[in-house]
């Protein structure tokens, strides 16, 4: 199997193939994992912004690659330029000159990580093939080299795994582990007694490694397909998660907290007792609405908003259900779709906390890297900064035989997985893409102050003009390991109708203070202050039929980039579909064995080579862990012995 690009669908397919015993080569022209699913430090994001604003042409490093194509073969050229990102605009709402000469501070406290730190470290690790996955972070990485995304930071000895057995205690365990890391940032007593200082741009640059900024903003439904896959495959051991703590709504110019669980409803001060009973009655109906078709079948052809008006719900309850629980469009969502979305929300409540959502610590970019790690543990080979020139197609059979890389190497494989962005215009002549409008803000306080600084919130802002899509706002605090203490990272997402700035800036102005002048109105002072912002449009290639691509060989499978939905179901479905087309009789991502469950054949382990006795009773426990990890370095073995 040859995979091109390391986005989430490709990484899942690669992990599933390696786990079923296939040989996998995973190449990526970029110097970081994840593609458009990646997470960056602040300096890494600035480099990414500069790269996408310049959009320089990439010349062939080896011009004679066409000589490798035989007479009975033809070459399908791949795109050399990434056209998935457009209209990138970044703004600093502070004194940017004060940051001149300021360098990014050293790395966070050393943890076992996936790969070396920074873009160059990630590229170097890819050249080491199998042992790359188990390498550790350098002792003192150079600040100026840390331009890539933060490597996966799963703490293998102490992370809280997502399993069906520990679901109820998962949130508390994550809170404790996050709290331990936050203690390293504790403010001295004399500083805490003073008034809080304003965050400056130079501080953001200096603490750039504290940021893990996602290119795509998504959350994990606690009973969604991705969580189920993480549990089934044991990939959850490589990552940690934090609960989304509050669901918010924007109504009549104010941000309000939405009661969604039974406890929230009856503890809410926003609702009177009659409204609480109305809401609980309707939510109970939604959980088993299929058993009562007579209550909704007359409204199947109408919208969900019209159906809500027939249920004798107050306007505030209709707003909460439509925009913050079902999270659907007011004009384009049918009654059945709305009921299904509400039921999905309610079914996810209570599994790991009082909200349906989880967020991976260190950002969404951790998830593709976790599956890459599983693939590498089972023999997958990874090569970053490794562009591919073309696909080699046999004229007679119409199947792809090989790829040619930028070194002029011809690499043969049976199946090929390619991300849509790599396909050239000649293949995508009939493809019509959608766009996603994205904005990322660094702010100094939360959109809703509740007395706790460590809130993870999701807010849906309905459109001013009916027919336009709503804006999904996800606000992350420092305990998610995505921003420095004293700041919040805010992601805004919606399907595009214009450029990202035109689509999202009106919402930013409603929720935040963009005024950099000293004299501001009192109502502006109450809003969180934006310190830095970036807007960009991202291509949405999901939902495109395979037949839309011209001259695509039958053994070449195309994965899409991120879609505009809040969850990750599209990527998981796509990965499973591709895997089952290639290997219909194999199980998709079976559980990886735990180290203590592995039984080794004594004849395969020679005493003189392994240094261990063949007797199971005398074999050290450390040996099992080392061998199950795919081979550890001498430094790691010494650490295990200590």
UniProtKB/TrEMBL annotation:
Cited InterPro entries: FAD/NAD-bd_sf, GDP_dissociation_inhibitor, Rab_escort, RAE1_2_domI_C
Keywords assigned by UniProt, alphabetized: Cytoplasm, GTPase activation, Transferase
UniProt domain RAE1/2: residue ranges: 436-564
A GO molecular function held by the record: GDP-dissociation inhibitor activity
Location of the protein in the cell: Cytoplasm, Cytosol
Region (Disordered): 121-196, 586-642
Biological processes, Gene Ontology terms: intracellular protein transport; small GTPase-mediated signal transduction; vesicle-mediated transport
Compositionally biased intervals (Acidic residues): 598-607
Cellular component, GO annotation: cytosol; nucleus; Rab-protein geranylgeranyltransferase complex
Coiled-coil regions listed: none
Compositional bias of kind Polar residues: 161-171
SUPFAM superfamilies in alphabetical order: FAD-linked reductases, C-terminal domain, FAD/NAD(P)-binding domain
Family per similarity comment: Belongs to the Rab GDI family.
Protein name listed in UniProt: RAE2 geranylgeranyltransferase
Taxonomic source organism: Caloenas nicobarica
């Amino acid at each position: 199997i040859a995979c091109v690009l390391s986005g989430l669908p490709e990484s899942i397919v690669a992990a599933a193939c390696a786990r079923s015993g296939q040989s996998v080569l995973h190449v990526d022209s970029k110097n970081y994992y994840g593609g458009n699913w990646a997470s960056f430090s602040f300096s890494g994001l600035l480099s990414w912004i500069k790269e996408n604003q310049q959009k320089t042409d990439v010349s062939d490093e080896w011009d004679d690659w066409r000589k490798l194509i035989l007479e009975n073969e033809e070459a399908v050229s791949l795109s050399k330029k990434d056209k998935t990102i457009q209209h990138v605009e970044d703004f600093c709402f502070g004194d940017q000159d004060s940051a001149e000469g300021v360098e990014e501070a050293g790395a966070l406290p050393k943890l076992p990580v996936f790969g070396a730190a920074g873009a160059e470290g990630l590229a170097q690790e890819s050249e080491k093939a199998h042992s790359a996955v188990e390498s550790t972070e350098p002792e003192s990485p150079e600040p100026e080299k840390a331009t890539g995304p933060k490597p996966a930071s799963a703490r293998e000895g102490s992370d809280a795994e997502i399993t069906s057995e520990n679901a109820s205690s998962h949130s508390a365990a994550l809170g404790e582990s996050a709290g331990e890391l936050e203690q390293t940032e504790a403010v001295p007593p004399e500083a805490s007694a003073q008034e809080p200082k304003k965050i400056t741009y130079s501080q953001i640059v200096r603490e750039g490694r504290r940021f893990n900024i996602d290119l795509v903003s998504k959350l994990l439904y606690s009973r969604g397909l991705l969580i189920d896959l993480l549990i089934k495959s044991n990939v959850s051991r490589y990552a940690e998660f934090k609960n989304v703590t509050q669901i918010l709504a924007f109504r009549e110019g104010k941000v309000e907290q939405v009661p969604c669980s039974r406890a929230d409803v009856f503890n809410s001060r926003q609702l009177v007792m009659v409204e609480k009973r109305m809401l609980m009655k309707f939510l109970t109906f939604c959980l088993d609405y299929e058993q009562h078709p007579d209550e909704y079948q007359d409204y199947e052809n109408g919208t969900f908003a019209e159906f809500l008006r027939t249920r004798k719900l107050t306007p505030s309850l209709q707003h909460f259900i439509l925009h913050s629980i079902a999270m659907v469009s007011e004009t384009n969502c049918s009654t059945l779709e709305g009921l299904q979305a509400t039921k999905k929300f309610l079914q996810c409540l209570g599994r790991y906390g009082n909200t349906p959502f989880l967020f991976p610590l260190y950002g969404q970019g951790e998830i593709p890297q976790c599956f890459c790690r599983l693939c590498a543990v089972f023999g997958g080979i990874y090569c970053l900064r490794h562009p591919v020139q073309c696909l080699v197609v046999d004229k007679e059979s119409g199947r792809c035989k090989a790829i040619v890389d930028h070194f002029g190497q011809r690499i043969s494989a049976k199946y090929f997985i390619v991300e849509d962005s790599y396909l050239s215009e000649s293949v995508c002549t009939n493809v019509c893409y959608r766009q996603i409008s994205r904005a990322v803000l660094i702010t100094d306080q939360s959109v809703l102050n509740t007395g706790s600084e460590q809130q993870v919130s999701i807010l849906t802002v309905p459109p001013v003009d009916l027919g336009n899509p709503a804006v999904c706002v996800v606000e992350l605090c420092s305990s998610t390991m995505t921003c420095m203490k004293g700041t919040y990272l805010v992601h805004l997402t919606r399907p595009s109708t214009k450029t990202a700035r035109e689509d999202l800036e009106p919402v930013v102005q409603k929720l935040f203070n963009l005024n950099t002048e000293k004299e501001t109105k009192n109502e502006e002072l109450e809003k969180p202050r934006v310190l830095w912002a970036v807007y960009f449009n991202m291509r949405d290639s999901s939902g495109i039929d395979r037949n839309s691509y011209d001259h695509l060989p039958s053994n070449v499978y195309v994965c899409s980039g991120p879609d505009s939905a809040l969850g990750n179901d599209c990527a998981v479905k796509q990965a499973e579909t591709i895997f089952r087309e290639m290997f219909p009789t194999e199980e998709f991502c079976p559980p990886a064995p735990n180290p203590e469950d592995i039984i080794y054949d004594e004849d395969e382990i020679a005493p003189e080579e392994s240094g261990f006795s063949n007797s199971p009773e005398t074999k050290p426990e450390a040996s099992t862990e080392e061998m199950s990890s795919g081979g550890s370095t001498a430094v790691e073995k010494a650490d295990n012995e200590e």
